[in-house]
Amino acid sequence: MSNKHDMVNKPPHYTMGRFEVIDVLEDWAADDPHIWTTLKYLARYKHKGNPLQDLEKARWYLDRKIAQLKKNSPDQRG
Hints:
Elements: H1 21-29, H2 33-44, H3 51-72, H4 74-77
Helix pairs in contact: 1-2, 2-3
């Protein structure tokens, strides 16, 4: 039996807590890809090997979502 991790179905950076990241994402953000991806990067930033890069990616997706909301907000269109 191998000690290798299943990097396709159960990668260790997605299964490090009580809840599997995919289950949380499907529950919280199934209909919002920007929030989904932001949460994904936040959830795994300490577990994948490059925390700063994952936090910067999370910020990139969050900034994109914020810009989208501002563009579509009646308060922001003037």
